[in-house]
């Protein structure tokens, strides 16, 4: 799930280039394995659309607009998660201490296993980024890196998927 990586908000985010780069790698990696990707936009009218380069990396891009901070507040999100018997959700996006955190907490409460790509989330300040990660970890979310997620999806070398993932990590 890609949370709120939008045109007007991203420039204010600490290390926003890292967040965007890793979110794109995760989106492209998910496509390699045909994993569903849910994208949210917080109040699009005020914060703008999803960054175009990221949107282009998501097959069948169809963002769920929301006003609630948690992505679980958007019916489209819960519907997408319910369709495929999904039990594990990997989160990336902004802001770590607000929308990403509240989404993680709600997903955990609903029984999902939640992974947070720590290098693909951030906030306007490093302190809030760290506080968000700590809060999610304390609640039971598993913090991983982008490369950890990609290689866990992969599982082994020597496949066509391995070559595609290797191109993403180089």
What would your notes on this structure say?
With 170 residues, this protein is α/β, with parallel strands linked by helices. It has a single domain (2-169), classed as Isochorismatase-like (Rossmann fold, 3-Layer(aba) Sandwich). It is 48% helix and 17% strand. It contains eight helices and six strands; from the N terminus they run βαβααβαβαβαβαα. The chain has helices at 16-32, 44-47, 52-55, 75-83, 96-109, 126-139, 146-154, 160-169, and strands at residues 2-3, 39-42, 64-66, 88-94, 113-122, 142-144. A six-stranded parallel beta sheet has the order 3-2-1-4-5-6. Strand 1, helix 1 and strand 2 (39-42) form a beta-alpha-beta unit. Helix 1 (16-32) packs parallel to helix 7 (146-154), helix 5 packs parallel to helix 6 (126-139) and helix 7 packs antiparallel against helix 8. The two termini are 23 Å apart.
How is the topology of this model organized?
Layout: E1 2-3, H1 16-32, E2 39-42, H2 44-47, H3 52-55, E3 64-66, H4 75-83, E4 88-94, H5 96-109, E5 113-122, H6 126-139, E6 142-144, H7 146-154, H8 160-169
Helix pairs in contact: 1-7, 1-8, 5-6, 7-8
């Amino acid at each position: 799930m890609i949370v709120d990586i939008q045109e007007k908000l991203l420039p204010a985010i600490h290390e926003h280039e890292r967040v965007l780069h890793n979110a794109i790698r995760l989106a492209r990696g998910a496509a390699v394995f045909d994993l569903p990707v849910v994208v949210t936009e917080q109040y699009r009218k005020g914060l703008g659309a999803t960054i175009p380069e990221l949107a282009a990396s998501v097959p069948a891009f169809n963002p769920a607009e929301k006003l609630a901070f948690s992505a679980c507040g958007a019916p489209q999100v819960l519907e997408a998660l319910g369709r495929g018997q999904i039990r594990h959700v990997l989160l990336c996006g902004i802001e770590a201490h607000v929308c990403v955190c509240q989404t993680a907490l709600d997903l955990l409460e609903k029984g999902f296993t939640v992974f947070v790509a720590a290098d693909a989330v951030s906030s306007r300040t490093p302190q809030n980024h760290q506080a968000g990660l700590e809060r999610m970890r304390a609640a039971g979310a598993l913090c991983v890196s982008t490369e950890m997620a990609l290689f866990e999806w992969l599982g082994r070398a020597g496949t066509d998927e391995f070559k595609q993932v290797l191109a993403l990590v180089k």
